UniProtKB/TrEMBL annotation:
Domain RNA polymerase sigma factor 70 region 4 type residue range list: 121-173
Keywords: DNA-binding, Sigma factor, Transcription, Transcription regulation
Ranges where the RNA polymerase sigma-70 region domain occurs: 27-91
Xref: PANTHER family: RNA POLYMERASE ECF-TYPE SIGMA FACTO (PTHR43133), RNA POLYMERASE SIGMA FACTOR HI_1459-RELATED (PTHR43133:SF8)
Protein name: RNA polymerase sigma factor
Protein family membership: Belongs to the sigma-70 factor family. ECF subfamily.
SUPFAM superfamilies for the chain: Sigma2 domain of RNA polymerase sigma factors, Sigma3 and sigma4 domains of RNA polymerase sigma factors
Amino acid sequence: MKQAERSLEELLVLRAQAGDSRALDQLVRLRGPRLLAHAMRLSGRADDARDIVQEAWIEILRGLHGLREARAFAAWATRIVTRRAARFVKGNVARRALSAAVSVETETSMPDVGEAASDARAVRKAMSSLPPDQAATIALFYLEDMSVAEVAIALDIPRGTVKTRLMHARAKLKDALKGACDE
């Protein structure tokens, strides 16, 4: 997320906390797709991800006035989605395993045509082979442009765990992409 978008998001949070319903609507439109992509990575199914995010928004809206720092909104909201997704997955363990839950097909930041599309497909394929915890960490760090501290808050894990997951995921991606380039 670019600095201008982060600043806009921070302003929208402050205005929403002050009771501006239009700002709240804009905030949902700005952050909503990112939260949905995160839920999709964790749940593996679009319908489940939408349900998770819908429930998360209820919790986000209820807790918004208690958020002390508007700049922490992205990590805070992502953490709520992470916890909602964990509860959802835990409640549906009998139906499917979390290991099948990673999908980065919903990412809109990757091109659809040309040589870049081939590279994007290779990256998506490599990311889909990562364990869910590593895929979520990589996506938040690189695709959502969150810092290590923000990812730690979003996933409710220690910073050291974020760094370890990034290290292992990078190694796996490097090997997977090296294999894709050799073909």
